[in-house]
Amino acid sequence: MITQAMIENFPSSPGVYLMKNAEGTIIYVGKARNLKKRVRSYAGDTRDSRVHIRFMVQLVRSVDYLVTDTEKEALILENTLIKQHRPKYNINLRDDKTYFSLRMDMKEEFPRLSIVRKIPSDGARYFGPYASATSAKEVLKQLYKMFPLRHYPIATCMARKRPCLYHQIKQCSAPCCGLISAEEYAALAQGAALFLEGKNTEVARLYRAKMNQASEQMRYEDAARYRDLLRAIEVTVERQKMVAQSGDSDVFGVHREADRMQIALLHIRGGTLTGGRSFLFDWELETEEGLASFLNEYYDLDAPIPPQVLIPVPIAEPSALEELLSEKAGKKVTIAVPQRGPKLEMVKLAGKNAETAAKERLARESSSATLLTELAEKLNLPCPPRRIECYDISNIQGEMAVGSRVVFIDGRADKSLYRRYRIKGVLQSDDFAMMREVLSRRFKAESTEDKPDLIVVDGGLGQLGVLNAVLDELEVTGVEAAGLAKSRVARDMESEEIERSDERVFRPGRKNAIALRQSSAPLLLLVRIRDEAHRFAVTYHKEVRSKVLTGSELDGVPGIGEKRKKALLKHFGSLKRVKEATLEELKSAPGMTETAARALVERLHGSPLPLGRE
């Protein structure tokens, strides 16, 4: 428990405080404009009265602090320490989702739109974000119908002798063949940029003026093209739902249920809702502090930062976070709590999205709990298996053998916990020995991973016996095991019908398979897990096989990495010419040294060097 004596010497300056338990482990990292005042709020009779906050404070045995010069520095330090220590009671945002944007460099002769992941400061214009590459491609697909910009890099376009297929279907204006002037193409590119920014009125005004000008100059074909563009834009705009007056913003909504906090995010770009996300956290402190901590972590993951961030509740010291986000974005960023008007309606909409996501999560958890309870009953497990792991082996007659592990938490795949294994100790075709190696590496003594409640292996009693033997050898306790044997095809030579046997589930101590109804939810879950492990193993095996089969004789040469290998092939033109090159020629190649050149000659021709080749 935090006492007044602990914080007696705390300064009244900005900084970060670290709460530790009896073992000295950091369980919470927080920031404050006034360290002494903030930590005092957790101590004595003035501490927060909510049960879950009191529970965390009861675990605290000491509090350390680090002083910073400014609140912004405290924000940065807090984020760094959270990533370093992963405290139990902090929001640990590990977001592997990548946003996509559309890029257009207006300085190019004929600007082109392309899909990118990162947004560097290179002077180009970026539009988005889009939640996936698929959604970004769909936007491009619709955009090309209105603005026929080039599809390929400029070098590829200019190398063509005639227009490509996109020109034939009126989705490219063929600047490569001089079928459009640079001025007219620039107008198309500008129109596409304005359209992506949601400035549809300005786009319409621009092209209406172009149409009238072309008509007055009796360039009727150009006027007709602008007329068609205007019609396409008007039809597309009618389909879009405007949700804000104007501008770009991220809108956050929060739904709180005890120690669970659901956050919904809506992306507003050009006054139009372009997408959204949902996040769920275990959080035991104030909602305002949780939201502030989330914003700091979320925008530290290279997420696109709009000029306005709308939130439902005020956070402490928003000016420090505004300063930090403005510095990252390279433009002024404001954080606001709307009180009325369309912006408040958007925040309420985000709140409804958070509440809906929370209800859907509860429904899924309830359904998952029922399914896992039924699975435990059918397989005679001591408790519902929240964490299920499945292993599979893939090889071709023992060659290029690999193993895979997939993990399902509460009946759903958790791909962040998937693992791939390259078999090292088994050189012949022996699936049992390979499985033993994979399982032994999984449960090695120094492993700090959580143990699974249930392990499923692809196979029958043989593979299950290997699993049990490894668990016994490594003295792994509290882990249940099951083997899932695939259905087999059986066909009577005198019959035209093909019969398929049932999927069979085996458990230790039972000679016969456990009878599960073939369409039952527990069996379908096991089959889905087994098939996912098989897919993951086969995918990795194909990757390994591709690398082996397409490997170059330059691979593995001391001093010859990927960059030098590419430079050599580019300089000489082919592997054959690299082999024919003398030592002096290799030494003079870009990026090469005499040591690397000698090692390469010895690898290609054997040692010592051939006479007359120096």
From TrEMBL:
GO terms for molecular function: DNA binding; excinuclease ABC activity. One of its GO terms (biological process) is SOS response. Keywords: Cytoplasm, DNA damage, DNA excision, DNA repair, Excision nuclease, SOS response. Pfam families: GIY-YIG, HHH_5, UVR, UvrC_RNaseH, UvrC_RNaseH_dom. Residues 201-236 form the UVR domain. It is found in: Cytoplasm. It comes from the Bacteria. GO terms for cellular component: cytoplasm; excinuclease repair complex. Residues 12-91 form the GIY-YIG domain. Residues 251-471 form the UvrC family homology region profile domain. InterPro entries: GIY-YIG_endonuc, GIY-YIG_endonuc_sf, GIY-YIG_UvrC_Cho, Hlx-hairpin-Hlx_DNA-bd_motif, RuvA_2-like, UVR_dom, UVR_dom_sf, UvrABC_protein_C. CDD domains: GIY-YIG_UvrC_Cho. The keyword Glycoprotein does not apply. The keyword Cytoplasm applies. Interacts with UvrB in an incision complex. The UvrABC repair system catalyzes the recognition and processing of DNA lesions. UvrC both incises the 5' and 3' sides of the lesion. The N-terminal half is responsible for the 3' incision and the C-terminal half is responsible for the 5' incision. Belongs to the UvrC family. This is UvrABC system protein C. It comes from Citrifermentans bremense. The gene is uvrC.
